[in-house]
UniProtKB/TrEMBL annotation:
It comes from Fusarium circinatum. This is C6 zinc finger. Residues 80-90, 100-113 have a biased composition (Polar residues). Keywords: DNA-binding, Metal-binding, Nucleus, Transcription, Transcription regulation, Zinc. Residues 114-126 have a biased composition (Low complexity). Residues 31-127, 420-453 are annotated as: Disordered. Residues 359-433 form the Xylanolytic transcriptional activator regulatory domain.
Amino acid sequence: MPGNSPPITLSTPSFFFNTPLDASQETLTEATDLQDTSFDLPAETAIAGGETASSAAKTEKKRRRPALSSSRVKKGTGNAGSSDSNSQVPARSAPAIGPTQRQSPSNSSARQKSSSIPSSTIGSNSEASTVDALAARVKELEQKLAESCYITQPAQDQFIEPDDQEAESAPMKGTVSKTRFFGQSHWMNGIHMFPGVFEMLKEAETRKNQHHAGFVKCKVLGRAIKANRYKAVSTDKLGENIPERGLADQLVSAYFDTFEGVVRILHRPTFMSEYERYWQNPEASSQVFLIQLQLCMAIGATLHDDVFSLRATSMQWVHEAQIWLVIPPEKSRMTIAGIQIMCMLVIAKACCAIGQDLTWVSAGSLVRQAMYMGLHRDPRHLGNMSVYRSEIRRRLWATILELNLQCSYDAGGPPLLSSKHYDTRSPADLNDDQLTDEPDADRKPTGNPETLTDMSVQLALQKSFALRLIIIKHVNEFRSKESYAETLRLNSELTKACRTLTETLAALSEAQRHQPRTIFTHFHSSLVQMFTYRCFLSLHQPMVARSASDPTYYYSRKVSLDSSLKLAQITGLSTPRYGTSSPGGSLDPVVSFNRLITNGAGVFRVIPTQTLFSVALEFIKKSEEQNDSVGGGPVMNLFELRAVLQSAETWFERRIRAGETGVKGYCFVVVSLALAEALEMGLPQEDVDQVVVDTGASMSIKAYDLLKEVAEREGLSLDEPEDEEAIHIDVPAIDSDAMQGIMEMPFDWMVMGGDLGLDGMGTFNWARGGMGMPQQFDSVDPSVVSQF
């Protein structure tokens, strides 16, 4: 319709009513009928019949009263004629219609049809055709009315887009284990690369041989050790478990010298001022500061020594922070300090192995609370804030984005966030002491961009954030297209980003030489590189298994190996590192990072695990190739791969000594080495299987001895009868009421707190199909599962 059509007044048309019309009402003219309706139809739908219609068109004011009868019309106009009900209808009058049909204005074509109706009394012969014609006109008017009012029918499903409803079902792009869905970046999806190894272990478990008995003993002892670490927490004593100052100083310094340089959360001068005031008058400190202090120390305790001797205390500090966030009133936690505590809690849970598999859920809550507080909007849109307030908000938002991204890689979940959801600018490259109270809008860029500042490391990491976000969406979002060309394109972009990062870190290292204080260390460089290079493994992991049957994906296998060797070098798996702390308590950055990889969990365990998957796969494949090659000549890089796996075996032993209770990661590495050596020797398949089983059995005995050391160190008494099914361990009683909702007990041996959650393969849906993978690697305790 034309754009200048008059608007439509939404009221009920007269033809919707079922009141019968008398004969006198049937003689109304079309112009009068038009005036009687409550619709202001567009100009082209109006009918102007003869002089009456023409005069009606010129009338500015519409009639809003009931139509007059035909006798009153005749009386008013002075026209003569019979007024009885048997008089003939004039040529321009409308024919009679039924109760649900009444003449309405139409277009010119409909009017022409109407003019062809004989001007005589409607008889039985013409009544049917007349009614059909009027019904067609009414239908036409209803359609035009609907179009004018933009009336549309709702979609079949308003929750799903129409295109998605018609599209074919999206591919699985992940695996299901118990109650969780693991996207393609989750480490557990790497298990499908080794169907033969786990088939052998599954068969040994079915036979209930020595291999199985050793694992049962390790499993029972590991659960007892974890249960012994949980302590009752009282909401009345939150923040009161502070150690003596000498130890507290070391733990706080360890945090600020390591993590705070990569993910900016706290303003160091402000925190240290509060810290000094606490030691002057502990009673005057707020509970918020005490929770922050305890989380600082919990993270720093991960780096304190080689055996994580403060693990139980750190777990209590983390539990207190969790309780503080949920006790009423929760709205009082919606502050900058509350956001800082949530950020530190995500890191602390990964370091202390407390619900580290669920940090993606915690990160999602953190993102939403930050957006609810407006951190996703740049401070310049929120009023005239000071430089200090604006930069703290920008730093926190950058940290939240990074934590959410890393948790998405770990959990195999989509980030559920994109650049269109925020407009907060990158933080300024300023030192903490440069955050002043002057208005942020008046601040001008100062200093040399190449100067090393407290923000240099985080800004270097943030440069590749947009690309890493695209990669995780490509890998984990199930509606994303599986395009290998897109995978190769992203690989090329990531390679460029890594080269830029290497150049940036080299420049920072050079700038550190001219700094009077330490800002940039080996710890910062290693952590930033680990967060970046891990993207290669997630990007190519879905393709590596396919490379065994499809040479098209061999490049992914090569890239995965190269990045794994790089990560092995970063994490110290290729060249073990040793070091000591200085007399003043300052820790060597190399040793700090080594202890983080040994004592930490979450991302600090997942990345080395994925690294070992790629190395072990290549080591086994190359061992097979060497056995099948002509002349049995040596295969390139076999020595380097063996060295990484041997170093990983030592790494797992250190992890168990440090308090890790899972042993199947240790088993995987040892068995992989034994399998490769058996293949190199060209042993028959039966002998190869026996070597794998025997190696696993001997390994379980050694692992149990390591666990006993941990139990004795943590004050756990052991009773060891010969029957492994009757093993009894004296665990101190725990107040279950006090721990309700706090203590997150694992629902299986390895999934929720073990070193490698291979037990999570119970009911594991190997959706990639045809791999012959085990359906259950360890039995599930129903009493524990029911608590989940």
